[in-house]
Design goal:
- The complex is a heterodimer of chains A (334) and B (150).
- Chain A has 334 residues and is of the alpha/beta class.
- Chain A contains ten helices and 14 strands.
- In chain A, the strands form three sheets. Chain A has a six-stranded mixed beta sheet, sandwiched between helices.
- In chain A, helix 3 links the parallel strand 4 and strand 5.
- In chain A, helix 2 packs across helix 3 and helix 6 packs across helix 7.
- The longest helix of chain A has 20 residues.
- By secondary structure, chain B is mainly α.
- In chain B, helix 3 packs parallel to helix 6 and helix 6 runs antiparallel to helix 7.
- Chain B is extended.
- The N and C termini of chain B lie far apart (65 Å).
- The chains are: A alpha/beta (334), B mainly alpha (150).
- At the A-B interface, helix 6 and helix 7 of A face helix 1, helix 4, helix 5 and helix 6 of B.
């Protein structure tokens, strides 16, 4: 019997993480978590002729590593769900041509990691499929090209800017018990606090993270104390501070809270402004760093709240504010 | 928390924008560039034995060439991240905007890529440069009619 949504959240009984594959770029490898990732590329082209093809290569490698660990082939997975930051979710869709199985493309900007994991989990919990792959990626150069300026354009960035992480993560979810499971999922509402600055994503997204965390706690009658760690996806230093203050002003005891954007890089030494962002940011930290710690039973339960700014450069030019969303998944040791 | 309250909170926690440091850097880098440009100008005037009017375009072309070369080598944006307006405002900023746009769209080919996108950022400067030059031309003409300008 599958569970029913409690508000925005649903508790799961039968969804487990079987395997993962992580690939990253040079700066992520040089960061404090560098040794956690399966494969790194020391340049943004990854031996390909364009940045988009490079991102696709990172995705393909992450997927291959993930499946190889379980000695599986592409056709052994029943469903693929994935997203990235490009228009037409280009990179995962172009990779999907090589996959002989159904593919569901999703877009949640930088929240795509938790969104794809959440949707895949529901499919498994519902008994419709036995396994699924969640596939997400982001690449600094492809994101800069599309959302900001040409890569080599010499412009002084604002101090509130975040740095799009380069990397790809594939995660195999299954109904067969393993030692880490996805225990709950919360889907977020789209929140807009009238923030218009596309160079200040942390400030735009913090209210969405706040809303999803509060909904998750209310729906499941929990607090920060029920988790060994709560991480937000890519609020980075500034957004992280705002969210903490927002929660504290509402008399919520904030403990064991961090942000993936602050964990992926050494903020003081690496030139990443406020910290990391992008689908790969929350995905790399969760699957590269937190998942092994869960497997080793160093953490018992971790809440990942991936945040996404659903901005369109066209709408920003039309002076519209930025809609944001946050989706959460709770990982637990079995 | 309402939006007004949120904005107040966010402003309180906002990281400093290093305004004074940026202005000083812009002054320093911009100034150094001026000195270099003057040196290049003097060099052309002495070597080719020409006057300032003839040497100026050669000096500008040299600066544009160096800016494009540094953009291609991936150095320009690193300098610009410190220099800010110091490299953005001079002609080097314009050269960088065009060469970086061209480089970025190289993967889409000569026509749909480089040709179509080269002026993506610089186009604004050209458009409004021409518009304001035309307006000033009209104003100047009107003044000449009344004999204010010779």
């Amino acid at each position: 019997m599958s569970s029913h949504f409690l508000g925005q959240s649903v508790k799961l009984e039968n969804v487990y993480i079987a395997s993962t594959g992580t690939t990253c770029g040079p700066l992520e490898y040089a960061g404090p978590l560098g040794s956690c990732f399966d494969k790194f590329f020391d340049d943004y082209h990854c031996g390909e002729s364009s940045f988009e093809k490079a991102e696709r290569k990172m995705l393909r490698d992450a997927l291959d590593i993930c499946l190889k660990r379980e000695q599986m082939k592409y056709k052994d997975v029943e469903l693929y769900i994935g997203g990235d930051l490009m228009n037409q979710i280009t990179n995962v869709h172009y990779l999907a041509r090589e996959i002989p199985k159904p593919f569901v493309g999703i877009y949640g900007a930088c929240s795509s990691f938790c969104l794809s994991m959440g949707v895949a989990s529901l499919m498994i919990e519902g008994g419709f499929i036995d396994n699924a792959i969640s596939l997400v990626s982001s690449h600094n150069a492809t994101a800069e090209r599309q959302y900001r300026y040409p890569v080599e354009y010499g412009v002084q960035k604002k101090s509130t800017t975040t740095f799009t992480a380069t990397g790809a993560v594939a995660t195999l979810l299954t109904s067969q018990p393993t030692n880490v499971r996805i225990e709950a999922v919360t889907f977020g509402k789209v929140i807009d606090y009238s923030q218009e600055d596309p160079n200040d994503m942390g400030r735009a997204m913090a209210p969405a993270a706040y809303d999803t965390i509060l909904s998750h706690f209310q729906d499941l009658k929990r607090s920060f104390k029920d988790y060994d760690l709560v991480v937000t996806g890519d609020l980075s230093t500034y957004g992280h501070k705002i969210l903490k203050e927002m929660l504290q002003r509402h008399h919520i005891d904030v403990v064991h809270y961090n942000d993936c954007g602050c964990m992926l890089y050494d903020i003081n030494k690496q030139e990443v402004f406020q910290g990391g962002s992008g689908c790969a940011c929350s995905a790399l930290v969760t699957m590269g760093h937190l998942y092994p710690l869960l497997k080793e039973k160093k953490y018992k339960r971790v809440l990942v709240v991936a945040t996404g700014a659903l901005l369109s450069p066209m709408m920003s030019a039309q002076k519209e504010s930025i809609p944001c969303v946050a989706h959460a998944i709770s990982l637990e040791v079995v | 928390m309402d939006r007004k309250e949120y904005d107040q909170l966010a402003e309180e926690l906002k990281p400093s924008s290093h305004g004074i440091k940026n202005a000083f850097n812009a002054f320093l880098y911009g100034g150094v560039m001026g000195v270099i440009a003057q040196g290049v100008l003097e060099f052309f005037m002495n070597v080719y034995n020409c006057n300032e009017k003839e040497a100026t375009p050669m000096m500008i072309i040299t600066l544009v060439f160096v800016a494009c070369l540094l953009t291609g080598l991936g150095i320009y944006d690193k300098i610009a991240s410190h220099a800010g307006a110091g490299t953005f405002i001079p002609i080097t900023g314009f050269a960088n905007s065009m060469s970086s746009s061209a480089l970025d769209s190289k993967s889409e080919g000569l026509v749909l890529g480089i040709g179509a996108n080269m002026f993506k950022l610089g186009g604004t400067v050209i458009t409004y440069g021409i518009v304001s030059a035309s307006l000033l031309g009209v104003i100047r003409y009107v003044f000449t009619l009344f004999g204010t300008i010779g």
